[in-house]
Hints:
By secondary structure, this protein is mainly β.
Amino acid sequence: MNGIDLGLLDVERVEILRGPQGTLFGRNTIGGAVSIVTAKPGNEFSGNAEITTGSYDRIDGKFSVDIPLSPGVFAMKLAGSSQNRDGFGKRINWYTGEQIDEMGDMDRLNGRVAFNWTPTENVGVLLSLDAAKTREFGAVREVLTFTEPPLVGLMNMFIDPKYLAVNFATDNHF
């Protein structure tokens, strides 16, 4: 699931391939594949950066830098992103009413370094290293208030099946 939330850095193109693609992309790609191709390191020094702010103390940043180490032969690209936001929901202890933790917060770091070596016209080597770090509480998964108390338990049972097991084990039947 984390692969879906990757901070996409310096994307060159996105390819949608009809299926099945079992030969090139693995045996379980019966419905096709989505291929995301990142930009290769360039032969000119260049870069870009982006900062986004928003509600709940959101601050996101992205950057990308092309560094030609030996023009036309060896180049490097650095790219990174950071996504930070405070939570927008609260998890409450049903018995004491105190807040346990804040749900929906986000703290992600993504980075990539790529090297492109072309010693001759016919030989090219591209090496890319990616890393990601994610620390966050999940999305809000529990309805806390509703007009009728039995409906709260019923709604939470469908949102999070563990709710049912925990509340019946503690004799708190909805």
